[in-house]
Amino acid sequence: MRALRPALLLTAVVVAGGCSESEPTVEGRWYTASQVARGTVLYDQFCIGCHGVDAQGTAEWHKPLADGRYPPPPLNGTAHTWHHPLKGLKKTIEIGGVPLGGSMPAFGNQVSEAESEALISYLQSHWPDPVYQAWLQRGGLQ
Ligand code: HEC
After folding, report:
1. Cα separation of 73 and 92, whole Å?
2. How does pLDDT run along the chain (142 residues), one tens digit per residue?
3. How far is Cα 107 from Cα 116, in angstroms, rounded to an integer?
4. Which residue's C-alpha comes closest to atom 39 of ligand 1?
5. 27 alpha carbon to ligand 1 midpoint, in Å?
6. Whole-angstrom Cα distance, residue 81 to residue 132?
7. How far apart are alpha carbons 138 and 39 in whole angstroms?
8. 135 C-alpha vs ligand 1 centroid, how far in Å?
9. Is 51 in the pocket of ligand 1 (CB under 6 A)?
10. Which residues touch 56 (CB under 8 Å, ≥6 apart)?
């Protein structure tokens, strides 16, 4: 009887889950590997030209340009992207930086909310754990 238990338990989990295809999140993170993969494709299409191949942005990102605007910052966890909760990051992608006096274009017409989340998961896949933890502690997911 005992030997049967693990099998029964597994069946129960699959049935209760309703969908045996649901993908687990990347360990310790809110997103899945599929979201990161989707985000990588979108990033290469829309963001790479300004924010760089590995989301490293511009080295002197905190120095204003001649016109007073700022160059594209790194999004890889070395700048202050981790100060913004998920909602705020989604908003930036949707409306861009122009309404705030910046120069980033809006992407609300080109990427869906799910795509925006995939983009953020791609960015966060570059964040070292201490940066990601600090983001969580600041209420990143609230
Ligand atoms: C034309 C250049 C350009 C493109 C393309 C661009 N950005 Fe930006 N981005 C910027 C600039 C410049 C800033 C700094 C704020 C500003 O000036 O608007 C910025 C800021 C950001 C921020 C806020 C960072 C922080 O630390 O507060 C995020 C997040 C971001 N971009 C994500 C993206 C994503 C995702 C894409 C692709 C969908 C993208 N950007 C495409 C230029 C760009």
Report:
1. 13
2. 455 454 444 444 444 444 447 999 999 999 999 999 999 999 999 999 999 999 999 999 999 999 999 999 999 999 999 999 999 999 999 999 999 899 999 999 999 999 999 999 999 999 999 999 999 999 999 9
3. 9
4. 47
5. 27
6. 10
7. 24
8. 18
9. yes
10. 74, 76, 78
- Own/partner contacts of 49-52, CB < 8 Å, gap of 24 or more, are 50/104, 51/75
Tell me, what amino acid is at 140? Answer: G
Going from the C-alpha of 117 to that of each of 16, 25, 46, 113, the distances in angstroms are: 27, 13, 14, 6
CA distance 42 to 112: 11
Q: How far is the CA of 51 from the centre of ligand 1 (A)?
A: 7
Assess whether the C-beta atom of 52 lies below 6 angstroms from ligand 1.
no
Query: Rounded to an integer, what distance in angstroms lies between the CA atom of residue 116 and that of residue 43?
Result: 10
Give the nearest ligand 1 atom to 43 CA. 37
Mutate-to-test residue for ligand 1 from 95, 104, 110, 116, highest number of ligand atoms within 8 A of CB? 104
